[in-house]
Amino acid sequence: MSLRQRGSWVVSVAAALAALLAVLPGCDRQDNDWGTFDPERKLMTVATDTLRLAEGGATRTLTVRLLMVPDDTVRVELTADDGQALAAPAVLVFPPVDDEWALERTATITAVDDQLDEGAQQDALTVLAVSRDGAYAGQGGPGLVPLAITDNDRAGVAVSETALEMVESPAGVLEETYHLSLTSQPTADVTVTMTVTPADPTFHVIPTSLTFTAANWADEQVVRLWSELDEDDADDLTVTIAHTAASTDPRYGPGLAIDDVSVMVYDNTLPPIARIRPANGAATLSLDESAAGTTADVEVVLDHASLLPVRLHLATVNGTATGGADYTAVSQDLTFNPGDALVRVVSLQVIDDNLLEDPESFEVVLTGLANAIIGDDDRLDCAIVDDDLTTLTVAVVPASEDGGAAQFVVTIPRAEPIPVTFTFTTTAGTATAGVDFEGISAPFFIAAGQTQRVIPVVLLADPYHEPDETFTANLSNVSANANWGGVPVTATIVNDDPQSIVLDGVTVGEAGGQAVFTLRLQAPYNAPVTLAVTTLAGDGLGAPAGQEDAAAGSDYTAVTASSWVIPADATTAVFPITIQAGTQAEALQEYFRLRIDSGSQPGFAGLVATATIVDDDQPFLAVADVAVGESATQATFTVRLVNSLECVRHEQRRCDLPRRHRRPDRQRRHRLHGGGAAVHHRRRPGQRERAGHA
Question: What is the value of pTM for the model shown?
Fold first, then answer.
């Protein structure tokens, strides 16, 4: 195969491999795990700075990662420029497969222990990317990572930093650190003590001593430094930290020279923050007109002292209240010298007037002139409570339920320049909202220049006879410029449905079955009415017994205190009493009464009605009509006695003859025997006598 052919094959294989990688999982440049593909992010990062090593002792870790998927495998070669250190592994491999490329790779860097007393050494680690992906190829370079190597062949304490700068902070939020380690392995424990000069209670060294052993002598131990944020500004601080070694190893005795660390602490204290607040812990600031001459106190407060004079200005600003008319205006400079108390009190004074006004207010504003920061609490609202109040009264006139509305009148003594507001609310009493009246709970006002407000409460008419009913009205949420006595006002709804109650008597025959008494009402009730009724013998007029008084049990069924319920909405009701049918003749009319003993509504008790029982067993004569022809020799009338066992005499006479045939009537007497007997009377037809009656 020629070189040209071989090169063509390599290109083809490379192209095929690229196409294959494009479809394999994890190789898609738009893979969700990798985010949006960005060739500009093809960067290699080294996750460390200077590596501090010790011969025969401390090792360090170097971390490398890629930020974007490569097109080809990336190999990162690690070599020490002067050969004073070794990397394991010496090559970090990042394949473009799945997410393997995104995993960080680490190498352990170890100093070469050469047993030479050569003191501290400096070397550098070359980190170089090698890849067919041109974006990654060549990244890194020679001497990329500095190496500081401690010789283990002579005694000494290595100090990582000898000059530090830092700022004050609360509770060590901001701190600085430096590191200590031994330069050779000791034969006994070594304790290094830190001493601060000049001593300052706000400057902290943690810990104040470190101990190194044969096992950790080459490990760097950390010393933390921080300075408290004090209340003094412009107080920078410079301290020196000296180190003293102590050990039974003579090489690490007190005479061992160890570098000092110089620390510059810059003041981080802000100028005092100034605020204003109501004095004595009050939540709000207010002045009462009625207490003219009294004051409301404002406190001007600094959060900490200053070494410089603090100058502030406090002034009042008009709102709805006007300086000079409603309050005494203030415009005042305040100076806090070093050592002064951190709180200053300024008094505000109200001016009384005789005007009815809404609550008014003004502002107190704090501004800075020098050496202070003005906090968020730089303004206070001061309210002026008006003491000039008007008085509300409420009246109402009784109204009938058909009157349409009950008119409530809310009044003040005189017209005022501002509205008076309140909430008007009705409350049910014996009258029910929604049934007897339309309830109200709503805000109202008496307009400026007016003295009253009429509030109609709609009354709901009904057909029922009921007692007069009441409901009340109350005021609440009265505006600050008015007061009200607080006693609810009662409205009376006068019933306009008069009542008339009639208990009707009844007349019934013995065979009627029932005597039905009827009760008639002019107006219904809105609830059932319960009555107790009792039957009484006779008509109450003192008729002799046996002649007119009906007998309970034989003529009718008696009741005593029996319940009779009149339904709601009814204007009539009936109460039946059973009649006992007889077969013997009695008095033509017999009587009994129904009396209402009591009722759940007034006006019923004591009503009485009479029932008349007409006897249908009275004796009587029955005469049948007769019709005959003129050729008949006689007409026979039959007279019968009904409902009697006694003998009865009766008379007969002719009557109803035409005048020309009339003869003097002859009176004839006959006797009929009881038990249905009959007698026959004969007349000649020529007499033209019509049907007669006995």
Answer: 0.36
